[in-house]
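Reopening this ticket.

The earlier resolution said the output was attached, but the attachment link was broken on my side. Pasting everything inline this time so it's all in one place.
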Amino acid sequence: MKEKEREEIEKWIEGDESGAEMLSRVSSVRPFVFPPPLHRVPLRVGNVLELVGPSPSAKTQILINAAITSVLPKPYGGLDHLVLFLDLDCRFDITRFSQLLIHRITQHGTDSYDQALYHLCMARFLYVRCYDSFEFLHTLRTLHCRLEKEKEVQGVGVHVLMIDSIGAFHWMDRASMFLSQRETSKKKLFLQTVSEAVVQNIKKLLQVHPMLIMATKSVIFGNRYSTASNEVKGNMEERCSKNMTRNHQNFQYREYMPSVWQSFVTHRILVHSSDEHPGTTNHQNSSAYLLEWLLPKLSFPDRIVVKDAGVFVQS
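Inline output:
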């Protein structure tokens, strides 16, 4: 620990803090103010927000919107922070991110965009791709050095860590449990062990680098009123009922992530397709979804529309 940091901690413990210093410290941990559709519940560093939904359901688009808000300067409606994006799905579209960033910049001025500002924001978006759980765990264990280096170079720290998608390697790790006994050259990955290591490494990272965690998770929905194969599957559904999560529109999904991850999540959003059309709009390329807060539970959903210009909430 640096000498200056040690002195500041000792001053804080002793209560030797002026009003201006107190206001500066409190303002640094204020809730994140994201634009819709993440505007219903205040989010703080240390929170773990999980976006749950089928593929596709605009989960990554919501992350992109939040990432752009984070990297933009405050005069442009941003938070002036760095964002670290861990791509576990390996399908991230950087062109889409770039287009939406340019659109947000041009909203605050002329039709042309500030190239210097564009390059600044792109440099604040830190992207890492992982192809399996080994790479994911190795990345988490080595993030501290990278975050420290980026903070020194860019003058601001990472306040948002995004994971897309947290369950990407679940089924590969599950399959590794059934490897034959002859394959002993590689250490077998077990679901509980992997999840415990992921959560433990993120917790250690948060102790040094306080961040908001935002993770997507793909699930498969089913309708509990579907009559197909109900008699055959009735007993199995009853046994699995404890692992099912239902919303008020009778959709359900099977929770497959281990309990260590489920208990780590502090906020959860459910996103699924809307039966209605997006409505009258000049944008032909648009899709409609329903977004519901499950944790904390809100009694009303938001209807969101994904357009060429981003994600919007329809009233």
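Reporter confirms the inline version is readable. Residues 32-219+255-314 form a domain with the Rossmann fold fold (CATH 3.40.50.300). Residues 224-249, 276-284 have pLDDT under 50 and may be disordered.
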